[in-house]
Design goal:
Blueprint lengths: L1 E2 L4 H4 L5 E2 L4 H7 L4 H4 L3 H21 L6 H13 L2 H6 L3 H29 L4 H18 L7 E2 L2 H14 L13 E6 L15 H32 L11 H23 L12 H11 L6 H29 L5 H16 L1 H4 L4 E5 L14 H30 L5 H15 L8 E2 L1 H9 L6 H16 L11 E8 L5 E9 L3 E4 H11 L1 H4 L4 H8 L1 H16 L2 H21 L2 E7 L6 E3 L12 E7 L7 H12 L3 H26 L4 E8 L2 E8 L6 E6 L22 H32 L5 E5 L8 H14 L3
Parallel strand pairs: 12-16
Antiparallel strand pairs: 1-2, 3-6, 4-7, 5-9, 7-8, 10-11, 10-12, 13-14, 14-15
Helix pairs in contact: 7-8, 7-9, 7-19, 7-20, 8-17, 8-19, 9-16, 10-16, 10-17, 11-12, 11-20, 11-23, 11-24, 13-14, 13-20, 22-23, 23-24, 25-28, 26-27
Membrane topology: Multi-pass membrane protein
GO biological process, one term: transmembrane transport
Keywords: Membrane, Transmembrane, Transmembrane helix
Length: 782
């Protein structure tokens, strides 16, 4: 019987006792299902197969799937297109107005962010609009989140830009290594049609470099989508658990520093080469500081003015305004428009050399097949981008889903992101992810379903098709839809030419939008105190990832962050606490004795709590820490006890053999005229006694007590009897001495019982079981 601890009766001063049970006794007492008690291997294998099939059915068809092949197919399609269930429950009277207003507002927000983040990806601004236009449409069909705004995002755009910077010079269209035909848009700026036939000029080479980036970005989007789709089909959504929240926060902050550093070149108007690869942030910071005298202060003033206006509206104007009219002022779009108008009338581009990003052509691109042959050089970056994009998007979706009272399926989200990237890549987009600011705006404005994304996509489509003539400062800029045929001699032919007005965007305006958008990311620095207070390991993961990302590179920072996060799991297993528990007087409540002065240990009893999981990484530490916490090492005592017990057993065996003549074997052989007997004991073959006997002649002084009529001391039977008496006496002495030593040894042991508190153990593996057995064997010293 043992007392029940830490129960309501114990807290009230009452004691309740319960019995000890073995597992068979417990099963018999409470009538365990006999089918689970004894099953043949075939039955166990069949049961396991049924469980696997049931698990697969739940994973792919849902918990409430229909029976039969048709029912399973219907359930599969129902899970693949969750929009059907949402639209069936759509309340037009209550939700439609919110979705339309929110969709229009988010669509307006897509325009400046899409163009700005496309610049981070080293692509023309229009491709950011294509991303913002395609992503919400495809996600509407497959996504399970009702508030996620899919499109462009700073961190993923930065990763895409780094990938293109590394790979475009290696796979240039001027090299004959790429033999295929691709279609894409090339923004030619003020080039004339005659320039299309001569691509050897510097401007034409820059256009071809842009074309190569567009082709590679579309191929990257396709590969990222295929990776995410494969992960979704295989139900590998749990892989994002490798990216802990502190590590991800440090990575995003470090990536944001990369983004901010890249935009400082634009803000100061510096036309110098940027450093890429390892240590690029410190190197770029040094280059900016050393070239500050060459800055374009007009560009800096315009960017600073834009940032001040953006910050003022976001912090003090829009928050109170949205409480009244629910629609915030699209200040980012207004900054772009008024920045272009101001630069046109003040002639900032021609007289003050203010940098222009490029033109935004109006019109919709024709679909083209991405060049999947580039997968060999892009697969590494694609896997990293796929994992980061999914982690950011799913964490955002799950956060707002729990806040709004519904759930999202991680595996279906993987399928949705993958299909969205694959389908969008046919329209020259780059990898997509969710935006924190746009998603938060959707939730704040009361969006109800994914219909908001469809509306925002239509708004961006209208901007792409018809906004050119409304905002322009160069009225007759042409762009061409060009077919590039890669061969040793590159040829180019124009398939369609449009003469439409386009928007010329000032780079400093987009840089100001990006820098102000990073404000919320840099606010995460305030989490340092909370991370330090709650977990030093989370703080270390955050700090290591941040430092590696900033001072090395984005990709290396992610790899080091994941490695360190996984390593901390094993470090924690090696540093798990081992506490000695005691109880308070007249209670059954056990607490650590080091934490409470009134908590004392039970005499001759040691209660130990190991606060860690018992698996291979910490099994050795578990055994050592339990022995150390018990106050003594039982292993030397066990060794001495084994020797003493062995001695006692040998003595008892000798005593038994003395009483039984059948346990002795005598073998004689002549030795110098005398007979020699060797006594060997069956119980211990190694124990041999040599007995030298005479030749059979006796003298009167050799006489002793007669044995079987023989009166000679030299008689073999007489000598054997005396030898037995000596062995008996020696065995008795050895046994008594060993028993005395054993009693003294056991009296020195300070414990009678060792109790392990296993409440903190989550799981135990094979190595842990062996460690637990070893501790049990070491402690069984009695």
């Amino acid at each position: 019987m043992i007392p029940a601890c830490d129960t309501e009766e114990a807290r009230n001063g009452q004691k309740h006792e319960r019995n000890f049970y073995t597992q068979p006794e417990f099963d018999a007492l409470y009538h365990r299902n006999p089918q689970l008690v004894s099953r043949t291997p075939v039955q166990r294998s069949a049961a396991m197969a049924r469980k696997v099939c049931q698990k697969l059915r739940v994973l792919y068809c849902g918990e409430r799937s229909y029976d039969g092949p048709c029912g399973l197919l219907l359930s599969l399609l129902h899970g693949l297109f969750p929009v059907a269930a949402i639209m069936c429950q759509y309340e037009s009277k209550n939700w439609l107005a919110n979705d339309l207003i929110t969709g229009f507002t988010v669509g307006v927000m897509h325009v400046p962010q899409g163009m700005a983040y496309a610049m981070l990806a080293t692509l023309p601004p229009v491709y950011g609009l294509y991303c913002s236009m395609c992503a919400p449409l495809f996600y509407f069909l497959l996504g399970t989140s009702r508030h996620l705004s899919l499109g462009t995002m700073a961190v993923v755009s930065l990763l895409v830009g780094g990938c293109l910077d590394r790979n475009v010079p290696q796979i240039s269209p001027f090299r004959p290594s790429l033999y295929c035909s691709v279609f894409h848009l090339v923004v030619l700026g003020p080039a004339t049609m005659s320039g299309l036939t001569n691509l050897t000029s510097t401007a034409a080479k820059e256009d071809v470099d842009v074309a190569a980036r567009v082709v590679m970005a579309a191929a990257l989007a396709m590969i990222v989508g295929l990776i995410q789709l494969a992960m979704g089909i295989l139900r590998l959504g749990f892989l994002t658990q490798l990216l802990s929240q502190p590590m991800l926060s440090g990575f995003i902050l470090g990536s944001s520093i990369h983004v901010g550093m890249s935009q400082l070149f634009v803000v100061f108007g510096l036309h110098i080469k940027k450093s890429t690869g390892l240590y690029n942030v410190p190197m770029n910071f040094y280059r900016i500081c050393s070239n500050l005298p060459e800055s374009n202060w007009v560009t800096f003033g315009l960017a600073l003015a834009c940032m001040m206006v953006l910050y003022t509206f976001q912090l003090w104007v829009n928050p109170p305004l949205t409480k009244r009219i629910r629609v915030p002022i699209p200040i980012e779009l207004l900054i772009i428009v008024f920045g272009g108008i101001t630069s046109y009338y003040l002639k900032l581009g021609t007289e003050y050399n203010v940098r222009v990003v490029g033109t935004v052509p109006t019109g919709f691109p024709e679909p083209s097949i991405p060049n999947i042959s580039l997968a060999g050089s892009l697969i590494g970056d694609a896997f990293v981008i796929a994992l980061i994009a999914y982690s950011l998007s799913y964490s955002l979706a799950s956060f707002y889903a729990s806040k709004e009272g519904y759930t999202v399926d991680p595996n279906q989200e993987l399928v949705a992101y993958g299909m969205t990237n694959v389908a969008s890549s046919f329209f020259q987009t780059y990898p997509l992810t969710a935006s924190i600011s746009r998603t938060a705006l959707q939730v704040t404005m009361g969006s109800k379903t994914q219909l908001t994304g469809v509306v925002s996509s239509l708004v961006v489509l209208m901007v792409v098709l018809f906004a050119g003539p409304l905002f322009y400062d160069v009225p007759n800029v042409r762009f061409a839809f060009v077919r590039l045929v890669d061969s040793p001699i590159l040829s180019c032919s124009a398939t369609a030419v449009y003469s439409q007005s386009t928007i010329r965007i000032k780079a400093c305006c987009l840089a100001a939008i990006i820098l102000v958008a990073l404000r919320n990311v840099f606010n995460q620095i305030a989490e340092i105190k909370r991370l330090w207070r709650y977990s030093i390991w989370d703080f270390a993961s955050w700090a290591v990832t941040l430092v590696a990302t900033v001072f090395l590179d984005v990709i290396y920072g992610l790899i080091i962050g994941i490695t360190f996060s996984v390593l901390t799991v094993f470090i924690r297993a090696q540093l798990s606490n081992t506490l000695v528990l005691g109880r308070f007087d007249k209670t059954e409540v056990f607490k650590p004795v080091d934490s409470y002065a009134d908590c004392v240990e039970v005499p001759k009893v040691k209660v130990i709590r190991y606060e860690g999981d018992l698996f291979y990484a910490g099994a050795e530490r578990f055994a050592a820490s339990v022995i150390r916490a018990s106050g003594f090492d039982p292993r030397p005592i066990i060794c001495c006890k084994k020797k003493l017990v062995c001695t006692i057993n040998e003595a008892e065996a000798i005593l038994k053999s003395v009483h039984s003549q059948q346990d002795l074997q005598l073998s004689s052989h002549p030795l110098h005229g005398n007979r020699s007997y060797q006594v060997q004991y069956f119980f211990f073959p190694h124990l041999l006694v040599d007995i030298q006997l005479g030749d059979g002649t006796c003298s009167p002084e050799d006489l002793d007590e007669p044995v079987g009529g023989c009166h000679s001391r030299c008689c073999p039977c007489r000598t054997t009897k005396r030898t037995q008496a000596n062995l008996k006496l020696e065995a008795l002495k050895r046994k008594q001495t060993a028993l005395c030593h054993l009693s003294t040894l056991l009296d020195k042991v300070p414990l009678n019982h060792l109790i392990l508190d296993c409440s903190a153990w989550n799981f135990i593996d094979f190595v842990g079981v062996n460690a637990l057995k070893m501790v049990g064997i070491c402690c069984c010293h009695r």
